[in-house]
Specification:
With 588 residues, the protein is mostly beta strands. Helix content is 5%, strand content 47%. Bound molecules: beta-D-fructofuranose.
Length: 588
């Protein structure tokens, strides 16, 4: 009875709730129409604003473009551009989800023929690649073609946090100065464009043309699948293959980052693909039809997180070919967050078998080298395996204190197999082209350090871009090292601990550290005891890459000093050590 009596009231109140929800939804759904008379719509972004979905309809045409962005609510931290040059004279309408009708952000969208911002902000690197503006993560599609090194990269043009994955694009002839090119691949109905590789199809196996550049990437939509796109104009424009995806998702959520090379011995393309916590190898005659060959990873290496961005490469060791499988992992790195491990072994055209080595072995024990892979199509008479990584860590990458751009790449490094005195390692060391960046050289006297010793004024007019080389001989010192310092008491410490057998970097006092709780922690690497350590350190505004014994050990770290560090302090906690052949180069 009671229930029946109350039914109309219940119905009425349900209706009212529904109406008020509708009303709220309406309030939260802004839209705007722009009659286009300029090259760009400038969108104000506030990093702390919630992310909203913006749907852009060009010329009343479908499909709409979907962009996720942090549209400013009160003030713009910075601006991003939406290119509308091709729509001059027509109308573009934009719907904004979860955005109030009178939102400050919508009202302040501007039309402009110019897009200007402070490119030279404090932590903009000088000789490392960074995106012109917006967010960047993994290097993608690295391929050498016709005199140019191509670098594609995970890119968000609509903000400085991870979102809207595109492939950004740049080229270089010397691996150190880069020219920005327009975005190469943009999201489509299969999803956004995640990491992948590019090859030159010398024999036209895919039928896109002889020497077509073919990009193989992950389409990340509802599921992750592998797609291809080709370019016949030196990578300037790409056409997506109409029958994508070429490898549909087999029911694995983490199924991504295809890296492809031509394997002469078995006359086929080989793809290594990250599949959850393993690497699956596929083979193909034509880049379009792929067959599963084998799976690697069970019970070996680090499994503290998802496996990503593999790369299988041959490297010569004393006249024999060894195969190296590079695998990035996040989290689960040796010092927290993301890092890149590798395996050394053999590959027979089907299966990769790892040699017995003390895995996990890490490409770089610093916290800021991730998702690195190698360039393809390097000419045979060069023959190098050239590697580049993303100089950040998923633990804090979205929050580092830069403004109009976020993240840089490491310096390009040559990979080699070496013996470190205990076992084989893959060494990584700046490519020889890096030496050409040196502008001036200053040589310091050899020194013996018993307590501490300061080399002040490392460089006149130090702009925070320099290189330091020296040989450190431990003698009877147990814990010793050196620090970069500035007049504000900030320091970045590099420590050799012969007692524990670790080399470490400490950045907890290096300047801005508290933008993310996990940033300040230091990083350790196992150190093989030797009589001398050759040290090379590259500093570029907010990054330091240190190489011990020509890359047998490499550590990359970000740091954000509030003043350039122009003092070098040597110290020992006990005993003495010497520093010899100290050279400081400014880098212009
Ligand atoms: C690695 C990664 C890849 C993925 C890409 C997405 O940093 O997570 O596995 O393809 O970033 O941006």
């Amino acid at each position: 009875m009671k229930t029946i009596n109350n039914l109309p009231i219940l119905f009425l109140s349900l209706l009212m709730v529904a109406c008020s929800q509708n009303k709220n939804q309406d309030d939260q759904q802004a839209s705007a129409v722009f009659k286009i008379n300029s090259n760009y719509l400038l969108l104000p972004i506030e990093d702390n604003a919630p992310e909203i979905k913006m749907q852009v309809t060009y010329n009343d045409e479908l499909p709409v473009e979907v962009i996720h962005l942090r549209l400013a609510r009160e003030q713009a931290d910075y601006w991003v551009k939406l290119e509308v040059t091709n729509y001059k004279g027509s109308e573009i309408s934009i719907d904004f989800e979860n955005t109030e009708k009178n939102s400050w952000g919508v009202k302040n969208i501007q039309q402009s023929d110019k897009f200007e911002f402070d490119y030279n902000e404090t932590y903009r690197p000088h000789f490392h690649f960074s995106p012109e503006y917006g967010w960047m993560n993994d290097p993608n599609g690295m391929v050498y073609f016709d005199g140019e090194y191509h670098l594609f990269y995970q890119y968000n043009p609509y903000g400085t946090k991870w979102q809207n994955m595109h492939w950004g694009h740049a080229v270089s002839t010397d691996l150190s100065s880069w020219t920005y090119l327009p975005v190469a691949l943009a999201p489509d109905s299969l999803g956004s464009i995640f990491s992948g590789s590019a090859v030159v199809d010398v024999n036209n196996t895919a039928g896109f043309g002889k020497n077509a550049m073919v990009a193989i990437y992950t389409s990340a939509g509802r599921v992750q699948s592998q797609s291809i796109a080709y370019s016949t104009d030196k990578g300037r424009t790409f056409t997506k293959y109409e029958a994508n995806p070429v490898i549909p998702n087999p029911g694995i959520p983490d199924f991504r980052d295809p890296k492809v090379f031509w394997h002469n011995e078995s006359s086929q393309w080989i793809m290594s693909l990250a599949t959850k916590q393993s690497i699956t190898l596929y083979g193909s005659p034509n880049l379009k039809n792929w067959t599963l060959l084998s799976e690697f990873g069970d019970g070996i290496g680090s499994h503290g997180g998802v496996w990503e961005c593999p790369d299988l490469i041959p490297l010569d060791y004393n006249g024999t070919t060894k195969w190296v499988l590079i695998v990035s992992i996040n989290p689960g790195g040796p010092n927290g967050g993301s890092a890149t491990q590798y395996f050394i072994g053999d590959f027979d055209g089907k299966t990769f078998k790892a040699d017995a080595l003390p895995y996990p072995l890490w490409m770089d024990y610093g916290r800021d080298n991730y998702a690195g892979v190698t360039w393809s199509n390097i000419p045979e008479n060069d023959g190098r395996k050239i590697f580049m990584g993303w100089m950040s860590n998923w633990d804090y990458a979205n929050n580092v204190p830069t403004k109009n751009f976020r993240s840089a790449m490491t310096i390009a490094r040559e990979l080699k197999i070496k013996h470190n005195g205990k076992h084989l390692v893959v060494s990584n060391y700046p490519v020889v082209e890096t030496n050409a960046l040196r502008a001036s050289e200053s040589v310091k006297n050899n020194i013996v350090v018993e307590n501490e010793l300061l080399v002040s004024n490392l460089l006149n007019n130090n702009k925070g871009t320099y290189e330091l080389e020296m040989s450190l001989k431990p003698q009877n010192a147990r814990v010793f090292g050196f620090m970069l310092q500035n007049s504000k008491g900030e320091e970045l410490e590099f420590r050799f601990d012969m007692t524990t057998g670790f080399f470490s970097i400490h950045r907890n006092k290096s300047g801005l550290v508290d933008f993310e709780g996990r940033f300040a922690a230091g990083m350790n690497a196992p150190l093989v005891k030797k009589d001398a350590y050759k040290v090379r350190l590259l500093v570029d505004k907010a990054s330091a890459e240190v190489f011990i014994n020509e890359g047998e050990l490499a550590l990359t770290t970000l740091f954000f000093p509030t003043e350039v560090m122009n003092t070098l302090k040597f110290y020992t906690h006990s005993g003495k050590f010497s520093a010899e052949n100290i050279k400081i180069y400014s880098i212009n």
